[in-house]
Amino acid sequence: MTLNEIRRLYFIIRTLLLYGVDALLPKQPLTRLAHLGRQSLFWLKNQHPDKPVGERLRLALQSLGPVWVKLGQMMSTRRDLFPGDIANELAQLQDKVAPFDGHKAKAQIEASLGGPLETWFSDFDPNPLASASIAQVHTATLKSNGREVVLKVIRPDILPVIQADLRLMYRVARLVARFLPDARRLKPVEVIREYEKTLLDELDLMREAANTIQLRRNFENDPALYVPEVFSDYCRKDVMVSERIYGIQVSDIEALQANGTDMKLLAERGVEVFFTQVFRDSFFHADMHPGNVFVSYEHPDDPQWIGLDCGIVGTLNRDDKRYLAENFIAFFNRDYRKVAELHVDSGWVPHDTNVDDFEFAIRTVCEPIFEKPLCEISFGNVLLNLFNTARRFNMEVQPQLVLLQKTLLYIEGLGRQLYPQLDLWTTAKPFLESWMKQQVGPQAVWAAVKEKAPFWAEKLPEIPELVYDGLRQGRQINQRLDAYYHGYLQTRQRHSRATYMLGIGATLLLTATILFANHVETLPGVAATGAVIFWLWGWRLCNKTCNK
């Protein structure tokens, strides 16, 4: 561990202790060593004893930087795992992180655009509309068309902080991979590498602009989801300009209810939007914490989601989608045998796994979650039990699905807040079954024919020529194969003759040795001479064979 990493690790520990976050550690045998370590650092006392522990945790994570703020954002959606007061405090990390100076933001925007801000915008507000871990947002009006817009700008000097934390996380991950028996399955280094990629991608607002444009196109004129328009002419690597939207934050349940929102339909549409992104588009918003999700004021009886901040998106290939859909449907049908077989077929568990035992273990974990409203299901406990099952059967973590797993956690957290009675399984099952029919049924065949029809129409006039070329090339290949085979037979014959001559030479040499040992005067010399002649002959044949 380098000196800078040691300094950063000490800073992390120091920050957590100065904010008294160690108070969250339960007193039990497993944490005894941690409590002893805390007592040994007696000079690092809690500097904020008057503040609630939830606020102290939020301030500590905020002080540690964007990597830790992202962790707090995810924790804020898991109200089944954390008390309400802590979850409410951590929810402020979604869009209420301490801002940086608005005049610095303006100067950074002008440097990126290459001129005074007033050239393109009016009514720029130096007070940020929202401030998050990596960027903050200011409002303005676009002079060219009078549209209200928001300008998103990256926090200055944030990259070195992120890189320092990532280096430390890599160091810890390598130690875990080296010393823990479950490391091969958990793939800690691969998981950190995937997290690093997504985090660094968020620093490139040109990438976020492209993601937003793609997601907007996927849901164009869709009543379920609205994505703001991006003004790409004014976007740069550290600046993005997009349409300003007005909506109710999805976590503001009182405001949604006061607006007359159909909470059940809103929750069901959230599930629909998620599965549509994953299975129809293979392109999903992977940072759906409440700070990035709003609900339109219009048509509360037919509510529409509004998605912001597309800096982190996930994609799945055809095999991943098919595998996930088949697993979901098997879960919904309680076909745990199918789930076990899919895991084995996909290679997630070793091929020598006892499918019967694996099926029983999955049934034990998953059966209790069905036929219950969402408010009575703790997916945290389910995931923990599945983790223990994975440990028993050597299941490996799939780094390419980490974003999808995180998004599922966000969806669960939002579902709990909006409509706890939502039957997630009944809502998702028809969608997945319909998607599977489109992939493997007659619809899939017809869709493939329509998709390939332009290509076939283009190639149809060339078919006679392609057939003739194929036949001619086939004849040439046959001629070459005949020539190669004839050459192979000749080489094999020469090799056989060379082996035969070398064998005769060895026999004559052995004969000469025996005759010489028995004191025969003339014959040993004759036999030895014959051996040399046959060896030279055999060597000459071998040399010809090698030179062919």
Q: What are the salient characteristics of this protein?
A:
cell inner membrane, UbiB, 21 helices, four-stranded mixed sheet, 548 residues, alpha+beta, five-stranded antiparallel sheet, single chain, 11 strands, elongated, nucleotide-binding, Phosphorylase Kinase, domain 1, 4 domains
Strand coverage percent: 5-15%
Low-confidence stretches: none
**Tally of individual helices:** 21
Give the CATH class of the largest domain.
Alpha Beta
**For the terminal residues, how far apart are their CA atoms?**
59 Å
CATH topology call of the largest domain: Phosphorylase Kinase, domain 1
User: How many strand elements?
Assistant: 11
What is the CATH homology-level superfamily of the largest domain?
A: Phosphorylase Kinase, domain 1
Q: How many discrete domains?
A: 4
Instruction: Give a short account of the largest sheet.
Output: 5 strands, antiparallel
Keywords: ATP-binding, Cell inner membrane, Cell membrane, Kinase, Membrane, Nucleotide-binding, Transferase, Transmembrane, Transmembrane helix, Ubiquinone, Ubiquinone biosynthesis
Enzyme class: transferase
Function: Is probably a protein kinase regulator of UbiI activity which is involved in aerobic coenzyme Q (ubiquinone) biosynthesis.
Pathway: Cofactor biosynthesis; ubiquinone biosynthesis [regulation]
